[in-house]
Structures are given as structure tokens and as C-alpha cells.
Specification:
The structure holds two protein chains of two kinds. By secondary structure, chain A is mostly helical. In chain A, about 70% of the residues lie in helices and about 0% in strands. Chain A is built from 23 helices and no strands. In chain A, helix 2 packs across helix 3, helix 8 packs parallel to helix 10 and helix 9 packs parallel to helix 14. The radius of gyration of chain A is 23 Å and the shape is globular. Chain B has two domains: about 325 residues, no CATH class; about 45 residues, no CATH class. Chain B contains 17 helices and no strands. The chains are: A mainly alpha, B mainly alpha. At the A-B interface, helix 1 and helix 19 of A face helix 1 and helix 2 of B.
């Protein structure tokens, strides 16, 4: 592409910001006995390197599952093994069995940060650059600006424990959008095998590909495509899980580690429905475990079903991306055992639609970063998070002029408004309402951030600020869920044709 | 919404550049910092805790005050803000004190003072005519200059990682250059005089200023062929320039003259005992000279031309800061370096005098003076190359 040098500058800016943020403290630094996610990653390198494959997911004297036991699919384990080989080459003390627990040193931090940066550089960043270059109907400058904004998204910079799975998922989306369905599905299968949370994205992939097969006709090309896709999915799963398919008990144990249904509806404070509900009604304690499971299962699927059915019936690239967003958001809001970091699974698809609805996407991405505030404060990342959020905001505002794109048409709500106006002729103030909501949301977020940082919570309610953050974020997310579903349901072919003509 | 747009400065790429680099500087806060961090903390302590008479005599720490008085006053003002961050950093005996609040304060003070640098860059941009080139933003000279100056990575590394206060000092220099371009010569001269009393390294470029102001400001007109018209000499202008420089110097050195401390101040400002080269050699002529000397001494020893007992023990490559003798080649004295520097800047000075080309000629001469002083000066730091790089940026852009 022309102006490749500008794209290089953008990538270098992204790398610089990531590297400077990684200079800060990491999760669990200096906090024995459990430390944090950083120690978990180091421990997995220790386990995968020193123990045979059959023992990775089992509890034993060498592998205490209570101390950061492996709870991600096999590809994570293989990746940790690869890093362990490099670690062994540099300093075997880092992964020595038992003795390296809680190992902390400057050199080790440099090593861990470098592995993350290389992972980003090899998988995630090329996917972003290629995705932006493949965007249609926008100028080169806008493509580069788009790449800059995606690379500056604070959430992925601050939570830097390697985003292999998001990188693979992005390759999956890229492949499928560019009609390389087989490669796209392969990439996505790898993503699922890396982190099981990618299952949040699985339904849209499935529905979109199924819809494509139906469109091509189930009696001819469509059927061939279906068979090919099925083969690829099965083959990739078998390849990744091969060492664990030898015994039934192995497979079951891995599944038990991946889906810990014993852990309960939610842990800690997370910006989803159940946690917010819990503020008023302690459902976690009232309802029995299996009822909680059924409740979350049903609500999740009820909220995402309309979009998925529409995607099967009318598969389109745009619908696919929006369905990714709404599906992942539904899962985040209603699912079982959701972690705060899972919002990144929603943020990635929103980054992909940044060029189509810049105003709402920027708003969402700001809220998603804000929702992780308690976690970021715990990891002492206040300064980097404020700085990166401001940088991201400035980049979006400068690149997309988002405040000028708040009309109904720009927000993709035109067809919805027209339908509503059939019953309520005075419904003309939708964009006004949305602008005011944005202002209220931003002001609330800034105020809450200031309060959390400067004030001490009252003694009776020590978690007051985290709960408030989660509650406010949850309200925002609910609004976005409704918004994205409206866009999907009211997106019609005629709307698209109109755009082409004009 | 319009208010928010204006507040975020969207329409203005300059604000976006300035804000962007400021945010990057904030991200650089937890990076490595050199001993210069302790140097400035020590100066904060000295100026805050001790009376003026002690400032240039205090030697508890090895990092004694060796900048001119205006910088000392600057540290004094900063120290009054510092006491709200961490009172302990202002204790002279707290050597190597670097609590997180101290770090935060010092880093933020550098970031804050860069406001002057941003303002100066803006003024320099105004001096550039960008109407000839096309509409593409990345091709506009103003944009290129702003990026090269605001996002200058040498300056970022030296100021925000290594830790120094070069940003606002270069701001003063760029501002004085901009004023000279705008034909506001008195302001330019005043700003440069002030700058000299902040950091005397800018003496490197003083000849350029002196000659330019004398030739193009004190002689108000030229003959048609461009040569000097002696009759147009303006005494008023010379005297007013002299007065400005004199007043600034009086303000700066006056208190120390009254205390009879001038020799001490000068010995601190010009420490010739520090040796020809810094611990880490600046890539200048004397580095080549030393290297040649080393190579020759090794060859000489191998071929038995030299007696090992005559070789001095102190080696130039040992990373120490002290005076040496060369083994094979003749030793270099401060006077020798001065003469070399003067010879090197003579051609550009001559051109500036005999064939003045207005501010552009001045800028070229300034860059050459800085570069020559870097090449041949006594005890030059590697960082001094910034003195040549930043004016060169403007020069390049004017020629676009």
C-alpha cells in the first residue's frame, strides 16, 4: 500500500507505548504467597518443562493444582513449554521445579515482557495492520488512523499477558471477511484451543459460516464447504488435544480444569448482571448452584439468539462483526464465572467496527477500560492507564472527528428511527439523547475514578468504589447491548443499497 | 459537543503532537535515570537549605553546583514546590534519596518546563513559509519541523530518561532564534543573554550571535553589493545591546560579585581539571586523537620504541574523569582546544560578517559554531551534539 511508512510509524508507536507501559509493576509483584498472574505464567513454564504431558492437568505432589494450576487449553501449555525452553537457555533457575516459586528479578521481568512483546509483534499487530489495510470504502489515511486507534486501545496494552488468542481470533475474522473461510476457521480453532473464553466468539463464527453454506445451496457448493469446514475444525482440535485423547480420564480432567463449574456464578467484582444484581439481592447465596447455571445459560442464549438467527439467514460481513460484538457482550453480561478481563473479548470486535461507528465504539472502549479500574489499581497501573486512555481518546477524536458523527445516520440508527417514527412521530431527538448520555457517562467515569483514587471508602462498605465502578459499567454495557442488537436487527439490505447509490 | 471538540484541540495538529509527546513523557516516568537525577535533587537541597553565600562552596555531595546563577535560582523556585511533594529530598545530607514522590516531582518538573519548548517551536513554525508545497499535512514544512523538534528522540532520551532540563533551555534558544528571524533583535539578544546565565554551554554559539548582531543589527544598512556600509553604524543599537547583556549579567552575577565569590563561581563553571574527555568520550576530534595515541603506544611497545616504564599509569580508556598525559602524541591543553575551535569557526564567522544573508545565514553559522565547538572543545559531553542538531532542523526546513 502507499504510505507504508506511516503504517510503520503507527506500529512503532504501538510498540513503544506497550514497552513503556511494561516497565511498570506486574500483577502480584512482591506479594507472597500467591503473587499474581505473572507468577501463574512462570509456574506454567515450570510445570510444562519439568513434568511429562500426562501430568500437566492432574493434581500431584509435583503439580499442586491449587497453586496456579493449568486451566487453559493445551495450546497455552505448548506455548508455555516453548517459552520454558528459551528460559532454560538463559537461566534455568527461572523454571526449576519447586525452587523457582515466587522467583522475581529484573532479568526475569525483562524476559517475560519480551515474550509478550514478541507474541504481540508476531501475531496480533500484523493482524491489525492487515485488517485495516483490507477495509473497504475508506481512504488510506483513515486506514492508518484506524490502525493507530486500535493499537492504542488501553485495555490490551495494560493487560499484557499475551494476546495470542485475540490475535488468532483476529486472523480468523480477517480470513472469513476476505472469503478465505478455511484459513479463517483454522485460525479461530487455534484461538479456542489457546483460551477457552474464545468460545464467546464461537457462535457468530458458526452462524456466519452456516449461513454462507446455506446461501451457496446445501445441495452443491454449500455442502462441500460445510464438509471442508467440519474437517478443518475436527482436525485442528484433534491435533491440539492429541496427547490428551489417549485416555478418557485425561480428556475429562482437562475439561474439568477448563470449565470449573464449582467456582460459582462470579468471583470478585465484575461488571456483569449477576454481580450488579447481587448488590440488591444476594442471588449467589440464595439460589442453589444448578439453578444459577441454568439461569445464566438461559439468559445468555436468549439475549444472543435473535442476532445469531439473523446472521444465519442473512450472512454479511458487517452483520458478522456486529454479531461478534453483541454475542460476546451477552456472554460477558450473563454468563457463568466471568472475569473482568473478559471484556477484552468484547473490545476486540468493537475495535473492528471502529471505522463504521467511531463515536459509539470510542465510547464503548473507554467504558471497557474504566470497568477494569479496580484491577488496574491493584496492579498499580494508574498512571499508565490514565495516560493511555487520554492518548487513545485524542487519537480517536483527531482521526475520526467523532463528535461530528453523531447524527442518526452516522450512528446507523436511521432505519430504527424511521420504524419508531411510524408509531411516535415526535421521535426525532435520538442523537440528542445519545450525546447527553455520553456526557453523563464520561462525567460519571471521571468522577468515580477520582473518588476511587483520592478517597477512602467508608468502613462499613470497604468495596464501595469497586461495586460502584462495576454497577456503572454494567449499566453502560446493557445500553450497548441494546444498541448493537438494534443495529443488527434493523440492518437491512435496502439500507446498504441506498448507501451504494448515494 | 462543539465545546468538547475545541477542548480536545481536534482541529489543530500541533496540539495533538504536543499532547501526544507529553503523554509519552508521562509514560517514561518509571524508566532508568542517571546520576543527573541525584545532581538536580542535590541542587534543590542546596538552594533550599543553604544561604546564597554557600551555594557555590557546598561540597557535601560530589555533584557540586556548576551551572550559572540563574539555574540556581530556578532550582530554588522549584524547591518551594518540591517541599509539598517530599520534604526529605531537600535535605543536603540525604545523598541518593529517590523516593517515588521525589521521582514523580522531578519528572513532572521537566515535563512541565517543556511548555516553554512547545511555545518556542510554535514561534519557529510561524517563521516558516509553507505556501509553496501541497496540501498533504505530512508534506507541510511546519508539520515536519514540529515533529522533528517536538518528538526529537535525542531530547526525549536525554531529558526524560537520562534526566536533564534541556527542554526549556533549548526552548529559550529556539525562541531567541525565532525573534531574530522576526527582526525583534533586542528580544533575541535578551533571551540569549538569559540563556547563557542558565547554562553556559551555550557559549559554544555565542560568537555567531555576537557577529550577527554586530553586523546585521548595529550596521543598519548595506551597500548595494551587500558589503558593509561603515557609515550606517548605529551607536544607539550597540549601546542598547551592551546594556541588555550587562544588565542580565549584573542580575545574575551581581550577588556573587558583592560576596567576592566570582573566582569560585568561575572555577565551578569552568572546571578545567576535569580533563580533555569525559568519562565516556564524546565522538569528537579528541576521541580520534586519543584513539590514535593509544594505537601508536601499543605499536610502540610491541616494536620496542617505547620504554614501558615511561608510560603514565592513568589510562584514558579507564572511564575516569581526570587529567591525563598522552603517551606518544603531544598532550593537549585547554588553550590548544580553544585555538582549534576558533580556527574551525573562523570560516563561518567570516561569511557571516562579509556576506550576511540575514537570519538564514545566522542559523547556518550558529549550527557550525555549535558543531565546531563540539568537535574541538575541552571536556565535551556527548549530549552537547543536541546543540547542533536542533538548530539544524530549522535550517533544513527553511530550505525546503
Amino acid at each position: 500500500m502507499e504510505k507504508w511508512y506511516l503504517m510503520t510509524v503507527v506500529v512503532l508507536i504501538g510498540l513503544t507505548v506497550r514497552w513503556t507501559v511494561s516497565l511498570n509493576s506486574y500483577s502480584g509483584a512482591g506479594k507472597p504467597p500467591m503473587f499474581g498472574d505473572y507468577e501463574a505464567q512462570r509456574h506454567w513454564q515450570e510445570i510444562t518443562f519439568n513434568l511429562p504431558v500426562k501430568q500437566w492437568y492432574f493434581n500431584s505432589s509435583d503439580n499442586n493444582l491449587q497453586y496456579w494450576g493449568l486451566d487453559y487449553p493445551p495450546l497455552t501449555a505448548y506455548h508455555s513449554l516453548l517459552c520454558a525452553y528459551v528460559a532454560k537457555f538463559i537461566n534455568p533457575d527461572w523454571i526449576a521445579l519447586h525452587t523457582s516459586r515466587g522467583y522475581e528479578s529484573q532479568a526475569h521481568k525483562l524476559f517475560m515482557r519480551t515474550t509478550v512483546l514478541i507474541a504481540d509483534l508476531l501475531i496480533y499487530i500484523p493482524a491489525v495492520v492487515l485488517y485495516c489495510c483490507c477495509l473497504k470504502e475508506i481512504s488510506t489515511k483513515k486506514k492508518i488512523a484506524n490502525a493507530l486507534c486500535i493499537l492504542l486501545y488501553p485495555g490490551l496494552i495494560l493487560i499484557d499477558y499475551g494476546h495470542f488468542h485475540l490475535g488468532f481470533a483476529l486472523w480468523g475474522v480477517l480470513g472469513i471477511s476476505c472469503d478465505c473461510d478455511l484459513l479463517g476457521s483454522l485460525a479461530f480453532c487455534l484461538a479456542i484451543n489457546y483460551k477457552q473464553m474464545e468460545l464467546y466468539h464461537a457462535l457468530p463464527f458458526f452462524c456466519f459460516l452456516l449461513g454462507k453454506c446455506f446461501k451457496k445451496g446445501l445441495k452443491g457448493k454449500g455442502f462441500v464447504l460445510l464438509v471442508k469446514l467440519a474437517c478443518i475444525v475436527v482436525a485442528s482440535f484433534v491435533l491440539c488435544w492429541l496427547p490428551f485423547f489417549t485416555e478418557r480420564e485425561q480428556t475429562l480432567q482437562v475439561l474439568r480444569r477448563l470449565f470449573p463449574v464449582d467456582r460459582g456464578l462470579f468471583e470478585d467484582k465484575v461488571a456483569n448482571i449477576w454481580c450488579s444484581f447481587n448488590v440488591f439481592l444476594k442471588i449467589k447465596d440464595i439460589l442453589p448452584r444448578h439453578i444459577q447455571l441454568i439461569m445464566s445459560f438461559c439468559s445468555t442464549f436468549l439475549s444472543l439468539l435473535p442476532a445469531c438467527i439473523k446472521l444465519i439467514l442473512q450472512p454479511s460481513s458487517k452483520g458478522f462483526k456486529f454479531t461478534l460484538v453483541s454475542c460476546a457482550l451477552s456472554f460477558f453480561l450473563f454468563s457463568f464465572q466471568v472475569h473482568e478481563k473478559s471484556i477484552l473479548l468484547v473490545s476486540l470486535p468493537v475495535c473492528l467496527v471502529l471505522s463504521e461507528i467511531p463515536f459509539m465504539s470510542t465510547w464503548f472502549l473507554l467504558v471497557s477500560t474504566f470497568s477494569m479500574l479496580p484491577l488496574l489499581l491493584k496492579d498499580e497501573l494508574l498512571m499508565p492507564s490514565v495516560v493511555t486512555t487520554m492518548a487513545f481518546f485524542i487519537a480517536c477524536v483527531t482521526s475520526f472527528s467523532i463528535f461530528e458523527k453523531t447524527s442518526e445516520e452516522e450512528l446507523q440508527l436511521k432505519s430504527f428511527s424511521i420504524s419508531v417514527r411510524k408509531y411516535l412521530p415526535c421521535f426525532t431527538f435520538l442523537s440528542r439523547i445519545i450525546q447527553y448520555l455520553f456526557l453523563i457517562s464520561v462525567i460519571t467515569m471521571v468522577l468515580l475514578t477520582l473518588m476511587t483514587v483520592t478517597l477512602d471508602p467508608p468502613q462499613k462498605l470497604p468495596d464501595l468504589f469497586s461495586v460502584l465502578v462495576c454497577f456503572v459499567s454494567c449499566l453502560n454495557f446493557l445500553f450497548f447491548l441494546v444498541y448493537f442488537n438494534i443495529i443488527i436487527m434493523w440492518d437491512s439490505k435496502s439500507g446498504r443499497n441506498q448507501k451504494k447509490i448515494s | 459537543m462543539a465545546a468538547l471538540t475545541i477542548a480536545t484541540g481536534t482541529g489543530n495538529w500541533f496540539s495533538a503532537l504536543a499532547l501526544g509527546v507529553t503523554l509519552l513523557k508521562c509514560l517514561l516516568i518509571p524508566t532508568y535515570h542517571s546520576t543527573d537525577f541525584e545532581v538536580h535533587r542535590n541542587w534543590l537541597a542546596i538552594t533550599h537549605s543553604l544561604p546564597i553565600s554557600q551555594w557555590y562552596y557546598e561540597a557535601t555531595s560530589e555533584w557540586t553546583l556548576d551551572y550559572p546563577p540563574f539555574f540556581a535560582w530556578f532550582e530554588y523556585i522549584l524547591s518551594h514546590v518540591a517541599k509539598y511533594f517530599d520534604q526529605e529530598m531537600l535535605n543536603v545530607h540525604n545523598l541518593n534519596y529517590s523516593s517515588s514522590r521525589t521521582l514523580l516531582f522531578q519528572r513532572f518538573s521537566v515535563i512541565f518546563m517543556d511548555v516553554l519548548f512547545v511555545y518556542a517551536v510554535r514561534e519557529c513554525c510561524k517563521c516558516i513559509d509553507g505556501k509553496k508545497v501541497g496540501k498533504e499535512l505530512t508534506e507541510k514544512p511546519k508539520f515536519i519541523l514540529s515533529v522533528l523538534l517536538l518528538w526529537n528522540f535525542g531530547l526525549l532520551i536525554v531529558d526524560h530518561i537520562h534526566f536533564q532540563y534541556n527542554g526549556f533551555l533549548f526552548g529559550l534558544m529556539l525562541l531567541s532564534i525565532a525573534r531574530l528571524f522576526q527582526k525583534r533583535h533586542m528580544e533575541g539578544a535578551f533571551l540569549f543573554a538569559v540563556l547563557l546565565h542558565f547554562k553556559h554551554i551555550y557559549l559554544y554559539v555565542a560568537p555567531a550571535y555576537g557577529v550577527y548582531l554586530l553586523r546585521s543589527y548595529c550596521f543598519t544598512a548595506n551597500k548595494p553589493d551587500g558589503s558593509i556600509r561603515w557609515k550606517s553604524f548605529s551607536f544607539v543599537r550597540v549601546i542598547s545591546l551592551g546594556l541588555v547583556v550587562f544588565l542580565v549579567s549584573a542580575l545574575s552575577l551581581g550577588p556573587f560579585l558583592a560576596l567576592n565569590q566570582l573566582p569560585q563561581v568561575f572555577s565551578r563553571l569552568f572546571p578545567f581539571k576535569r580533563g580533555l574527555c569525559h568519562a565516556y568520550w564524546a565522538p569528537n576530534f579528541w576521541a580520534l586523537y586519543n584513539a590514535l595515541d593509544k594505537v601508536l603506544s601499543v605499536i610502540g611497545l610491541k616494536l620496542k620504541f617505547l620504554d614501558p616504564n615511561n608510560i603514565p599509569k592513568a589510562s584514558m580508556t579507564s572511564g575516569l574523569v581526570q587529567q591525563f598525559q598522552h603517551t606518544v602524541l603531544p598532550s593537549v591543553t585547554p588553550l590548544a582546544t580553544l585555538i582549534c575551535t576558533l580556527i574551525a569557526i573562523l570560516p563561518s564567522i567570516f561569511c557571516l560578517w562579509f556576506k550576511p544573508q540575514g537570519p538564514r545565514g545566522f542559523l547556518r553559522c550558529l549550527t557550525l559554531c555549535a558543531l565546531s565547538s563540539f568537535m574541538f572543545g575541552w571536556h565535551v559531553h556527548e549530549k552537547a551534539i543536541l546543540l547542533a542538531i536542533l538548530p539544524m532542523r530549522i535550517g533544513k526546513n527553511k530550505d525546503v
